[in-house]
Amino acid sequence: MLVSLAEFKAHAWRDLPRMAWVALGLRAGWYGLAGAVGLYLWTDPTRRCVGSLSVWTDASDLRRWIGLPRHVQVMRRYKPRGAARSTQWTCKTFDRAAILAEARKRLARRDLSQTGS
């Protein structure tokens, strides 16, 4: 399985509520996507961040999600309003607690890379 951790940090506080709302909208229908295993959305208002932790059966399923028109539209709209970073790793089984613990460690270490979109 492939785990993807994404973070979007808003440049301005005023954009954070809308970004969180849009992220909630993106989750609609997510569970029906081929290869979608699990999804966790999060916000950190103290850092002006919203993000997602998603689990996929493989990288091609994640790429398909990233390329969906709605996702592309949202990322293009909000790209000028903040900075996106992400990281990925693999796991053999879907262990929710272990995946969440690893994500928290990576966020605490700021172990994410700047993304282009």
What brief labels describe this structure?
5-stranded antiparallel beta sheet; alpha+beta; 4 helices; 117 residues; Alpha-Beta Plaits
Describe the protein in words.
With 117 residues, this protein is of the alpha+beta class. The chain has a single domain (2-114), classed as 2-Layer Sandwich (Alpha-Beta Plaits). It is built from 4 helices and 5 strands. It has helices at residues 16-26, 59-66, 69-78, 96-108; strands at 2-10, 36-44, 49-56, 82-90, 113-114. It has a 5-stranded antiparallel beta sheet with strand order 2-3-1-4-5, with helices on both faces. A hairpin with a 4-residue loop joins β2 (36-44) and β3 (49-56). It is globular and about 40 Å long.
Short account of what is shown:
The protein has 117 residues and is an alpha+beta fold. The chain has helices at 16-26, 59-66, 69-78, 96-108; strands at residues 2-10, 36-44, 49-56, 82-90, 113-114.
How large is the count of helical segments? Answer: 4
The backbone outline, from C-alpha atoms, is: globular
**Major sheet: order of its strands?**
2-3-1-4-5
CATH architecture: 2-Layer Sandwich
Helical residues, percent: 25-40%
Q: First CA to last CA: what distance?
A: 23 Å
Tell me which oligomeric state these chains represent.
single chain
